[in-house]
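INTERNAL AUDIT FORM
Audit reference: QA-55
Scope: verify that the stored structure record matches its stored sequence.
Auditor: D.O.
Record contents follow.
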Amino acid sequence: MTGDVDEPARFLFIDEYSGDAERKRVEYLLNNWSDGTIERADGSVRIAEGVGHEELSKQIVSKIPTERVDGCRMERTDTEPEITAVETTIGTTEDIVETLGEYMRSVIPAVLWASARAKYEVHIKKGRTEVSNDLIGQEDGTYVRARSVGLTPAGSFPAGLFQTELEEYAANQQPD
């Protein structure tokens, strides 16, 4: 098992994709990553939890040479998503604002994945993000809260688009 001080840090990434499209996106990313070296593991890869790792390691090296065995302690990497919200009131009805929202989701394009909560998933070259919005009718128009959750830069992209489109639409609703 390795552990020299001079060796660069090594990471094991486990991606549990839900379909062929996600698998292809991850494989493309890993195959085209330019920093360091990324390779598929040879042999078997297992996640051992709640086992005596030292005893298990001894048993494995009794079956194959020590230099061909590598055991690592796993720690989760920090991948906290960025949450971006856009809030404004537009002087028009909820139906018209919803139509504007449909237009914006078609531009991105967004795919509905939680219809009960009106949550959408967006895939762009820079990554994946989830978007949602709340509309509340008020006397002076419709209160809009659009929310984007994702890692930067993908996480902030839909929110920036929503901000721009909502501001332009609100400005066009003002009397001259």
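Auditor finding: record pair retrieved intact. The chain has a mean pLDDT of 83.
Action required: none
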